[in-house]
Amino acid sequence: MTHLFGFEIDPERDIKSTPRQIKDFIGSVVWQDIEHELKVWLEMTRNGLEDIEYFEKPNEVKPISVEMRTRLQGAAATIRRVLQLPEILEEFARTIEDSEEY
Predict the structure, then answer these.
(1) Does residue 57 fall inside a structural domain?
(2) Residue 17 domain-assigned?
(3) Which residues of 5-23 are buried (b: 16+ CB within 10 A; e: fewer)?
């Protein structure tokens, strides 16, 4: 079985898009808009990690809590993963397509 990004690639995986369709999507205005918005979210999340008052009560000046820091770090990781999703799907689809040719 082939591995990609640490995952086993099953040729029977249910990806309906072709590599070309995903590549076209990556170049589309729709993806550009989505990508822009996700980057705004990521910047807001980073601001929350850097600004001690960003996600805390405005009248209480104190460092961001460990729980909130953990949540923001998880949110940032998730947003970065979603930004990579089209390329990951393209590679999955390409791997599946290549396995079908043999």
Answers:
(1) yes
(2) no
(3) eeeebeeeeebeeebeebb
